[in-house]
Prior knowledge:
The complex is a heterodimer of chains A (220) and B (590). Chain A is mostly helical and 220 residues long.
Amino acid sequence: MRMRLQRDIDGLTSGIISLGALVEERLRMAVKAIECRDMGLADQVIEGDIEIDRQEVDIEEEGLKILALHQPVADQLRYIIAIVKMNNDLERIGDLAVNVAERAKLLGEASAVQMPFDFFTMCEKVQEMLQKSLDSLVNMNADLAYDICAEDDDVDMMKSMMQEQFLDKARRDPENLEPLVHLLIVSRHLERIADHATNIAEDVIYMVTGRIHRHKGARP
Amino acid sequence: MRRRRRLLWQLYPSYLLIITLSLGAIGWYAADAARQMTLDNSARALQAEAVLFRLLIADKLTSQAFQEIDTLCKQIGASISTRVTVALANGRVVGDSDFDPTRLETFALRPEIKEALHARVGIVRRHSFTMNSDLLFVAVPVEQSGAVTAAVRMGKRVEEVMERSGSVAFAMGLGAVVIVILGAGFGFYVARLVNKPLLELKTGAEKYARGDLKYRLRTDASEEIDGLAEAMNIMAAQLDERVQTIANQRNELEAVLSDMVEAVLALDNEARIIRINRAAEELFGIKGELARGRPVGEAIRTTELKRFVNKALAAAEQVEAEIVVLGAPDRHLQAHGTPLNDSGGDRIGVLVVLNDITRMKNLEKMRRDFVANVSHELRTPITSIQGFLETLKEGAIHDPENAERFLDIMIKHTNRLSMIIEDLLSLSRIEQEREKGGIALKEASVKDALIAAIKTCGGKASEKEITLSLACPEHLKATINSTLLEQAAANLVDNAIKFSDPGETVILEAELIGGDVLIRVIDHGCGIAREHLDRIFERFYRVDKSRSSKEGGAGLGLAIVKHIANAHGGRVSVQSSHGEGSAFIIHLPA
């Protein structure tokens, strides 16, 4: 019975990592769609969301099944709860990637606008955070997860800096308001994605140490 | 588990037991025989005494001198400490050494007397109630003219007889104890002797088990043990050789695998990584030792690779696919999945070989774009020339004012066509000459070439009111082809003018850094977006599809610059940020 439980948990892990990989790729594609004004790529992201949703439902059902069937305790219970929570975050990131892709399409239709300097830095930073949070999950590395929590502040700062830049640009160049608004919204989505990546990192900390890291400052 | 006893403690007690048992058995038998012999000897001695005594009393019996017989009995009995009795044929005792014969009852029923009265020698060992102890009696008949008239009986206490045999038994017992002690010592020695080579063999076998196959056993014991040691030595030598062979083969394979350009992943049936080579580690940015034993989906988070692996694991045949790994930059991989079978033919996993075809893909795309672009660039002017020609033919030729205008437009397009073809030709000329090694490079002043370039572009610059500034050390020399370098610099400056707004400055500068000559063209125009930077040196590549035809370029200028830089063994690079201008740099190596 114990073996069965471990096997089911391994299946759950492999499912969440596969979902993570998928979401990571979707985000990358969505950002690339903005960068290269590639409508086809954006469409792929939008259409592929069904797959993410399907996987999310599968993982959730699997997690609930394990809880009901085996009634695990201690660290295994903690592990499953954390995975179910992460599952939710990943699905949200997938949705946000779709939103970014939709904006990419609108941007592609609008006139070309000069990208603010920090925009792609922010894109990279957010992608890196998501990647690191998945790495910390794969390796059960709490140290890496703590780093991600610290990095979230950088992204928040980037976003507010970019908002100022947008305002400034919009005042100077009101004709190009439309693409600027799209970019502003994308930066908001990215900031939300960073928040979800942070949630995942916090769940990893919870998995490994059993400590709830949310709403806290530095690591203990 | 039962605690195992040492061989020594299994052998040794059995030795002791054997020694003690055999000595005991022999001792018991010997003691018994000695006692029997003593009894026999005593009986014989008593018989002899009885016979002698019979002679002494023979005539006295005849004369019925019973009193004398009794006295004689008492004398002799006391002197040889033996009970001497004489009984008549009717059982009446007439002489006894220890008792008064008259007070003794008839002896006819005593077994030994009975025997003697039947003219036989009676030897009996029994309890005597008159003496109240165990006695050995020997009785002999006294015969007179063929008839038994009396019996002479000699009796001796068994205790007395046995006294001597007891001392013999004690001596024997002492001897036995000495032998047992000696035997125990010797047994221990022998057991040790058997045990020692076995211990040596055990040590050797343990060393082999730990992998120390160079160790050799040296025993000097029995033939069997020596043979066993020899066989073990041979076995170790062969094992050593095989292990060496396997290690060598493994190292060779390892070397082949790690030096392969293709990324190789060996996966088991659960898609866990068994082996991964260096190319694969680099391709996916992972560490082999960390990845080993992990599911491929965990170690390398690439959905397409995982899908491919699942497909390859499910398929019985080799599978092939092209997969894209998203990242910065994206990589296109040609993947082959081959089933892995063990020696028994059972499926143990899949071998995935990944070939990086990103470069090929890019070249392919470049070629496709080139063909599309070149057709487009050539067709546009031809279409309008065609259109104007047809209009002229349909009557516009008789309208001098319009005909003039049409002809001007046609000349403009023809010039453009000729310019494009000129550029293409000069590109292919540079390429061809470079292939043949025919581009003449010689030491020349860089400044002269740059001045010539500025002169070429001077007209356009002044049209757009753009200032050209030149900064170049007076005596800067490099191995160059002046004409080509002039063309490259002119192309870059021409571009810079095109993308600058009126009134701005274009800077052309050259300097010597670490032996390399760097020629920079800097403008403060609109700059180039990041996504185009990699591709602007491709032929006909357009940053802005709608803009360039207005500006009159065909998209070949930068391609020519790149080829010229390459022809000099150098390269060209660009730094730009959108909205802030660009800097093109030609690096010429020393």
